[in-house]
Structure formats: structure tokens, C-alpha cells
Amino acid sequence: MKEQEIELLTSFRKELHRHPELSGEEVETACRVISFLKPTNPTAVHAGIGGNGLVVVYDSGLPGPSIGFRCELDALPIVERNSFDHKSQNTGVSHKCGHDGHMAIVAGVGLHCQTNPVQRGKLTLIFQPAEETGYGAESMLNDPKLENFLPQQLFALHNVPGFETGAIICKKDVACPASEGLIFSLEGKTSHAGQPEKGNNPAPVIAAIQLKAQQLHDEHWQNQNRTKITTVMMNLGGRAFGVNPGKGSVAFTLRSDSNEELDTVKSKLISFAKEKCKIAGLVLSLEESDPFKAVVNDPDLFEAIQWAAVSQGMAFEVAETPFPWSEDFGRFSEVTSTGFFGLGAGLASPELHHDTYDFPDELIPVGIGMFLELGKALW
């Protein structure tokens, strides 16, 4: 791309960084994307899909491939600890996962179309809301408006600190694990601490559930699907030594390279908790949160990603294991062919979700170059 186009996209990225919005609240972010892409003369712009989701289409009107590129609109509830001019102006909210940079890259593909119209087939740019909570892709796919615009091949990327700047990292088959949060809330009966026999303290059952979770983790984490269970929260009573608490809770994150194995382990843990609560006379409430499906790379799209990197002289690394974090792109893997890769953000870059993280602008032309090569059949 031309230098002035990269400068324009860098400025746009910093504008997005200054005005972050949380998952499900990306109204102004979507408007900024529309305003940026309107001069590129898209065939159609469809807003409000699955909430604040946005789909921008460049259709040649002729037979040909159906290719799409997807990015995320949302930011995180993190106080930014930077002092540069494009620091977040929304207190307590900031782009600490690089979604501002991902949006600039996908917008760059649209900018390319302004002077290089699609010649065959159809290009679809998807700007997804609520990626961080795991609900955005599902919301978009449940919206009938998306049905006519879902591409046959859909690509996405994510910047990855800890790898050489601009390196392309891709994993065959499963690229990111499935995950889900589970919160078990137990209710018994509160009593005086001097008369615990008159109450029903859930502490022993909470401990039993936690130990069962650890047992399931030990049984599964070293298998081929690397299933893990992490205890993330425990709550029981307070600093009141005269009270025998009657309520408590424990929460876990379940993670696995297999959607099926995650469901199996989840079912085992839930069944155990129900049985223990029934025996102890406790009322159990269960909350499932932040569901992510595994991201699966189509074999042909993996090969396309590898070729796109190598043909441009980019460093390419075949990952031996999936990225450790989950990605809402996995829901798209269930309905169309998907290709997902990492974009090295530098060895010295702060980690994702760190309060000093900032997307490296030098990755913008690299990401655009990858997407244009992957979509070259359109031109």
C-alpha cells in the first residue's frame, strides 16, 4: 500500500484506541468504521447485526470466490497506564488486546478496494462485537441478516506478543482452545458460629467440588486435547467470627482443544456438584458464562496462509500447540471454512491485556499484505 494510506490507517487505529467501548456497547466504534469505509464505495453496508455487528460487502456481481476477513470491535475493562497522545479517553476502558489494530487492518482491505475494485466474486468484511465475552459471533450468526453474507472462506488474525515482529504463526487443525466459565452457588442455612449444628454451611461441599475439579484436571490436561480446569474464584462468608455462613460459591474456567471433551468434563463436574448438594441438603445454582468454541483451521486455508506468508518473504512458523487463549472466531469454524493465524507483535511487547499494551502500528501493512494475498483471487 502507499505510504499515505498506511498513515491514514495508523491515524484511524489511534482514533479507535482513544475511544474504546466494552463488549456489547460498540455503537460509536461501528459508526467510526462506517464513516471510514464509506468513501471506499462498498456495494453494501449492513449495521446492527447481532447487536453492534457490522458487515461491509464489495461484490463484483460476477461469479467467483466468496472470501471474508473478520475482526473485533470491542475493548476491555482495563485502566490504561500509558501517557501517549492516543491514550484512551474512556476511563476504565482500553484496547489492550489489539482489536483497534485488527480493525485498522481489515479496514485497510476496504481501502484497497477504493482503487482496486473486486473483479470477480464477493469480498465480505465482518466487524464482530462482543468477542471478549464469547457472545458476539453467536449473536451475529443467530441474526438472519448475516445468512446472505457469510463467506465460504473466512480468515482472521490476532497479534501475538512474544514472537518476532511481523512473523506469521499458524497451527494446523485446532488453533485456539474452547473454553467456558462455570459458577457454582450453594445455599444452606446461616447460624451462629457457636451453634453450627443449627445451620448448614456449604464449605465442605465447596471443598469437595474444588477437589473434583482438580482431579478432572489431573486426569485430562496431559492428554491430546490438553483439557484444563482452573479455579478462578471462591467465596464463603466474611470477617464475622460469630457467623456460620450459609452461602458460598466457587467458579472455574474450563479449557480444551476439543469442544466435545470440554462438554464431557463440564457434565462430569456438574453431575458431581448436584449429587453432593443433594446429599448435603444444599440448594445449587449454576451459571455458565463466556462460552468459546475451539477455532479450527481448515486444511486448505492453513496451506493458503502458509503460502501467503512465504510468497511475500515473511517469517512463517508452524505452531506445535494451539494458542493458550480462546477466541470467539471458533463459532464461525462451525458454520464455514476458517483460517486463523497469529501476527508476531515483538519480543519486547507487553502481553495482551496488560495495562501498558499498545498495538504495534508496524503490523498494519503486514496484516493487510497477508489478507490481500489470501484474497487475491478476487482481483
Description of the molecule:
With 379 residues, the protein is an alpha/beta fold. The protein has 2 domains: 3-176 and 294-378, Zn peptidases (Aminopeptidase), CATH 3.40.630; 178-291, Alpha-Beta Plaits. The protein is built from 9 helices and 16 strands. It has helices at 3-18, 27-37, 99-115, 136-141, 203-220, 259-280, 299-311, 330-333, 363-374, and strands spanning 44-49, 53-59, 66-72, 122-128, 153-160, 168-170, 173-176, 178-187, 191-192, 228-236, 243-244, 247-256, 283-292, 295-297, 316-318, 337-344. It has an 8-stranded mixed beta sheet with strand order 1-2-4-3-5-16-6-15. Strand 3 (66-72), helix 3 and strand 4 form a beta-alpha-beta unit. The chain is elongated and about 80 Å long. The mean pLDDT is 97.
Distance from N terminus to C terminus (CA atoms, Å) equals 15 Å
How many strands?
16
Strand content: 25-35%
- What best-fitting shape do the alpha-carbon axes yield? elongated
* Helix fraction by DSSP (H/I, runs of at least 4): 25-40%
The largest pleated sheet is described as: 8 strands, mixed
Summed over residues and divided by their number, the pLDDT gives a mean of 97
Stretches with pLDDT under 50, minimum 5 residues: none
Structural class: alpha/beta
At CATH level 3, the topology of the largest domain is Aminopeptidase
Architecture per CATH nomenclature, i.e. the level-2 architecture of the largest domain: 3-Layer(aba) Sandwich
Number of helices: 9
What's the CATH class label of the largest domain?
Alpha Beta
| CA-based gyration radius | 23 Å
Q: What is the CATH superfamily classification of the largest domain? A: Zn peptidases
Main β-sheet, spatial strand arrangement: 1-2-4-3-5-16-6-15
From the structure provided, what is the oligomeric state, counting identical versus distinct chains? single chain
Taken together, the total number of domains comes to 2
H/E element order: HHEEEHEHEEEEEHEEEHEEHEHEH
